[in-house]
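2.7 Reproducibility. Because tokenized structures are sensitive to small changes in the input, we list the exact sequence used for Chlorite dismutase, including any N-terminal residues retained from the expression construct. No trimming or masking was applied before prediction.
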Amino acid sequence: MNEQRTTSTEVTVATDLFALGEGERAVVFFTARRHGAGPAPTTLLDELETLRAEGWLLSIDAMFTGSDEMSLYDAGFAHDVDVVGAFEAPGLSQAHAGIARLEQAGWARTFRTAWLVGRREFAPVPSTAGRDPSSPWAFFALWQWNDAWQQATPAERLHYDQECDVAFSSDVGSGISIAGRHRLDPGSRWHHLGMWELPALALLDDAMATHERVADFKFTTSLHYIGRRRPMTDVLGAAS
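Resulting structure tokens (single pass, no recycling of outputs):
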């Protein structure tokens, strides 16, 4: 699914909490509806294994640890899509080529999918309370800078960034791990994607209250997804 592009005028800078991402890695974010209830073809699982061998990270966990985990998130209980998830490719060209390969290998027969691709901006930030590798939930936030942000002065934007850093520091101190940030606006109406690992949903409620308190949302329009973690093989199954 292609989206109308709206490019922001932002210059990416590191903050007290977020370090700039290194290299050219690119996120492949997706929301999908399932076609029927049958298992996916084994060719799709084979292609995922091939991409992993080529340097793809196929779960949020892998973005922190480099693990071999392949997972996505059930989202149908709260959204009009069945699953949501994210991979990370070695670069933008590999990301787009990999999507085509997955679709041809059987993903398109299994899901009707909206894909978003963008380069990593900020490095992952594990929870300072200790990252929980078994976190069962994830929160995905897509956002774009609104007119108020575009009209804000550099000093107002700096103050906003500082206030948001306070909220994000509270998040990672509570047990939430943040998988960095990716920039989407070269090919999407959304400017950024953020992804959080959540050991418990109550942490998300508390985090949203903190972000509201520091007026995090005054400069953005956003779309949020929440999902429950499942192994990729359980979701896809396998059929010859």
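The beta strands are 26-34, 71-74, 83-89, 111-122, 137-145, 177-183, 192-198, 220-231.
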